[in-house]
Amino acid sequence: MGAFIAFKNVTKKFGALTVVDNLDLEIAKGEFVSLLGPSGSGKTTLLMMLAGFERPTSGEIFLDGKPITHLPPHRRQMGMVFQNYALFPHMTVAENVAFPLEMQRVPRAEIVRRVERALDMVRLGALKDRKPSQLSGGQQQRVALTRALVFEPDVILMDEPLGALDKQLREHMQLEIRDLHRRLGLTIVFVTHDQSEALTMSDRIAVFNAGKIEQIDTPQMVYDRPRTRFVAEFIGETNLVAGKVVDAGGERAVVRVGDAALSVCGNVQPGRDVSLSLRPERIRLGSTPAAANALPVTVADCIYHGDHMRLVLKSGSLELVARAERLAGDWPVGTEAVASFDPQDCTVLAS
Ligand SMILES: Nc1ncnc2c1ncn2[C@@H]1O[C@H](COP(=O)(O)OP(=O)(O)OP(=O)(O)O)[C@@H](O)[C@H]1O
Ligand SMILES: [Mg+2]
User: Tell me: the pLDDT tens digits for 91-128?
Assistant: First the structure.
């Protein structure tokens, strides 16, 4: 099956500034794709081009195989949810939700029926006569979501829709959006700053950096197999360790770090200077020498975090951060120990 949404060589410039840089992106029907990246990396601009509010400087955008690059927004069948809800304050909940249908000149009786059904779907039926000011932030966001869903769009675009909500409500809405996505088979493109939000909600994550996608993969691949230094550092916390490849074949390599020869994952050429990415929670600490992938370390710092401890470990000039679960014992400062990890938990970065 071909891609449902496709960007082909899309560039967007504002004056001399290239904001989206010769970008290719394919999204399947029914997929939930998050765009994750630092401020100014081009996420909103990409969404605006998909919705039709911005034109690419060059390149082409396709929906279901047809070029839509020059189609106006109202002919694209896409629902949009913005960070600041953008509800009409003088209209009731039901009137807000009805608005896009009225714009499309749907008959009155059908509007009433569809609005009711959409509000029930997000459990807002009881609040339909209230004004936005009489709703909580989460309820307002649900109304905005309902308004995007009511005309049964092919695609829902969301630009940091949960950014203004407190943590508890945000997590609740994350589950609700995920559930709607599954139940309705929606195609969702979801912009977020929040990496844990992207990891928990998406089928795939596109990591943006300066107008380019550095990696697009499942949450697990992006986290466990970052391809670049940028991705490794942007998502989660990681230790970057410099070393030299001494042996390599297939997806495995042996990398010399100081006196140690470490078995790691990744496709690289022998002789290259590389960086390794090793997540803090993948480091095991023991008091006896480990068989493989072991580094002698001294505990240089130990910080209490409630459910876990963060340990700073020194091995010669190398410094590693490790995360120790509470049950894994006490590691007071000054303790000499052995840090080790499994080869599949350490990735060679391409750049
Ligand atoms: N209409 C515009 N005119 C000029 N420059 C713009 C315009 N819109 C966006 N930009 C610039 O394009 C770059 C990318 O902006 P964009 O809004 O796509 O970033 P973003 O990834 O969504 O960032 P954030 O996470 O802060 O929302 C920024 O440098 C921004 O200043
Ligand atoms: Mg933005």
Answer: 999 999 999 899 888 999 999 999 998 888 777 889 99
CA of 195 to the centre of ligand 2 (A): 15
CATH 3.40.50.300 residue spans of the chain: 3-232
Model pTM greater than 0.85?
yes
Of 297, 312, 299, which Cα lies nearest the Cα of 257? 297
CA angle 24, 30, 35 (to 5 degrees): 45
Pick the CATH number of 237-348 from 3.50.50.60, 2.60.120.460, 2.60.40.10, 2.40.50.100: 2.40.50.100
* Residue closest by Cα to atom 12 of ligand 1: 19
Cα of 13 from ligand 1 centre, angstroms: 10
Beta bridge partners of 6: 26, 62
Element (H, E) at 81: strand 78-81
CATH code for residues 3-232? 3.40.50.300
307 CB-contact burial (10 Å; exposed 0-12 / middle 13-18 / buried 19+): exposed
Other beta carbons within 10 Å of 26: 15
CA-closest residue to ligand 1 atom 7:
14
